[in-house]
Amino acid sequence: MESASSAKTGDFFYGWDLLYKTVQSDVDKKPDLLIALVHFLLTKHYNFRCVGIGDDKTLPEEEGSELLPDNWNDDDTKYSLRYVHDKMLYLLLGHITEDALLINLMDINTKKVSNICVEPETLVAAVKGGINTLMPSASEIVDRYRKELLDPVFTGNSREVTTQTTTTSPRPSGSDPLRIGEPRRGGSFTPGGFEPRPFGFPDIGRGDLDPLGRGGPGNLFTFPSRPNMGPGHMPRFDPFGPINPNMPGQGGPNPDHMRPPNWDPDYYM
């Protein structure tokens, strides 16, 4: 529904003048205008149809009208109007006290009842004229009607309301909602079915999980460059493959590759 802040400047009250002209001769007290404003809100913005006066709880067969019925304000102390929406019956009841108007809206089907108390002498400035002359705070009154009278009882939507569709970004194909972090990109090979490294820990041992030997240094940390390492030899890997005796330096694997610390070959003799 259109908010109160924009009601005066928009076309929210378009149609009020026509309704007012049909009842202008009947209006003789300020509470009449507050009831007429509720009727305008129900019929124009909530698609209710008035099916007469009284408090009969039997659902009528007629479709109803957007006009106020005859004799709607004949009683000096109360109002009783019946409305239909989507084959559901609603009662709008008003009671005039010394300085206030108590209005109730009842859903006959669900038995939900709402109420609001308004002060005609404060809210209604005149009984003749345009909407801004009659009720200078008409927008605020309508907002109160909607929040205190309609929302607690009526579960449908105002014809002013537009449906908002929540869009969800599509999940990439093959993504796992329980996975921590994003899969690794780039040159490191990740065997199918293995989870990416969690929490940014070093990718140690990944190469040992791949039978083709791709994707990392295995169970050894990658050694930094030689500077600042102090004395000692860098670890060496002796490649092996088909032996070609005509090429110098080729041969089988060197058995001393990566010997344990304090290696003593006589210990195994």
TrEMBL record:
Residues 191-202 have a biased composition (Low complexity). Gene3D superfamilies: 3.40.1000.30. GO terms for biological process: proteasome-mediated ubiquitin-dependent protein catabolic process. InterPro entries: PI31-like, PI31_Prot_N. Residues 155-269 are annotated as: Disordered. The keyword Electron transport does not apply. Keywords: Proteasome. Residues 24-160 form the PI31 proteasome regulator N-terminal domain. Belongs to the proteasome inhibitor PI31 family. This is Proteasome inhibitor PI31 subunit. It comes from Drosophila rhopaloa. The lineage of its organism: Eukaryota, Metazoa, Ecdysozoa, Arthropoda, Hexapoda. The gene is LOC108049228.
